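Hi C.,

You asked whether I'd gotten around to modeling the 64-residue construct. I have! Everything is below, sequence then structure, no commentary in between.
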Amino acid sequence: MGGMVAAIEKSYPQREIAEASYRYQMAIDKKEKIIVGVNDYVTPKNRWTCWQIDETVAHRQAEA
């Protein structure tokens, strides 16, 4: 191709990045690539629980 300058002038690196990104996203969308919490094993929104630390425990931990 004639080196990196020639490759950049022909948009080769940008095209390769775009194509790789597209293939990656398609694999995620088709569940060929699993990302836990994104496209599989997703927790329903109504099951989210916010835990709070008891004040006595928090005080003990702060002193320690």
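If it helps when you're writing up: The CA atoms of residues 20 and 26 lie 10 Å apart.

Thanks,
B.
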